[in-house]
Amino acid sequence: MPARETEPFPRAVLDVLGAAADRPVFEHGTRVVTGAELLDLVARIATGLRAKGIGPGDGLALLQGVNPEAFATILAGHVVGARVAGVRPGLTDAQVEHLLSLDVTLTITDADVPDLLRSTPEPPRCDGRPGDVARLIHTSGSTGAPKACAQTYAAMTGAWAARPDAWPPAVRELATRLGRYLVFGSLSSQVMFEYAVLTLTAGGTVVVAGDPADAITRLEATARVITVPGLAKLVAAQKSDPADLSTLRALLVSGSPLTPERHREALDVLGPVLFHGYGQTETGMISMATPGDPVGTVGRPPVDVEVRDGELYVRTPGQASGYWGNPGESAEVFVDGWVRTRDLGRFDEAGYLRLTGRARDVVIVNANLHYIGPIEQVLAEHPDVAEAYVVAVPDDETGEAVHAFVVPKADRVPPLREIQELVSGRLGAACAPSRLTAISEPPVAPSGKPDKRHLIA
């Protein structure tokens, strides 16, 4: 058994909960859970998992909601050294079935937790082995089957969220604003979970918001994660019918780039509360702009993050080691210790990182990245479609949306609803085109390839 001070993740989080004692750390409706109570939940669930034979190297799949027990189950899975994979909502049945086939030893749902909690708690002993995979974080699944980014126990132990001595300057500033941090959607979200751990470490409370739309006012929140489309809606609502946002101190903007115009408008309307993070599932946080950083940048990367500009390659302390069970894709993205982001960017004279585009054909819908190639393939399988081309277009509701151009085989152009149902059934609703245009042939670039820039125009 490793000495306590050298135990891997989540030892640092458990120590935070132990130090919190009677301080409220989780709030779910009228229920308030203290640090000691949450630590007891972790201990009981960990004992129950061990009784079911779950230990280092075993696969643990979690299909749970957003509540204290779900958070405790994630930590308990790591306590016993398992490979934890959270299954987020919104996936198709086929995608969920695929995820549950990835060497899963045990699946836990909310209904299974009461049985685990009957266990007699023992002081948590963190059994994770440094080289073992600690968690699988799934990508959007736009290729049909979500890719699972594999993060080792060594990487999770080296990450910064539960270690104040390792906080970069931007995170240190953010930590002072996390008094009441909203969680919603799914705790299997990398961003949602990481900021929850940071909140607990900073002395704040994690607050469950079933519907985040009015939760800042209703729950007197100080911080929440928000997508770029969500930010645009919030800004528009504040301009037309202002709500009381006097408690708000941090909006954690993630998922897609924020244009300088929207960035500036949000600061004007909401005040100095924007923290614009840049990262990927494969890397974790790469950099973060604070409210005082130049508009149009994503801040300066921390000293322990290396970034090569142009087509951005990065190295971070908590990066994934590859895609679970997918050596081909791993070889393309994880190169000699670097992660190929397939984003384009450059540093300005002051060392701030500015994103300038993408080196890949993707659309980002509601902060989730989807590859365009698989969407085009599904569209081309329709009996009335001879060719299909997809581009990403701006969308006020989702940030970006899919616009499909099809060359019909005959005179019949398939209805948009028919196309949407086809794509949704195979790849999920986010990949379904929001608009459809029939063309006789695609425009051609000088290279002889279809000219998608002309289609976008």
From TrEMBL:
Q: What SUPFAM superfamilies does the database record attribute to this sequence?
A: Acetyl-CoA synthetase-like
**Domain AMP-binding enzyme C-terminal, residue spans:** 375-449
Protein name, as recorded: AMP-dependent synthetase
Q: Which InterPro entries match?
A: AMP-bd_C, AMP-bd_C_sf, AMP-binding_CS, AMP-dep_synth/lig_dom, ANL_N_sf, ATP-dep_AMP-bd_enzyme
On the tree of life, the source organism's domain of life is: Bacteria
Q: What is the lineage of its organism?
A: Bacteria, Bacillati, Actinomycetota, Actinomycetes, Pseudonocardiales
PANTHER family referenced in this protein's UniProt entry, alphabetically: LONG-CHAIN-FATTY-ACID--COA LIGASE, NONRIBOSOMAL PEPTIDE SYNTHASE PES1 (EUROFUNG)-RELATED
Residue stretches making up the AMP-dependent synthetase/ligase domain: 21-101, 122-324
CDD domains to which the protein is assigned, alphabetical: AFD_class_I (cd04433)
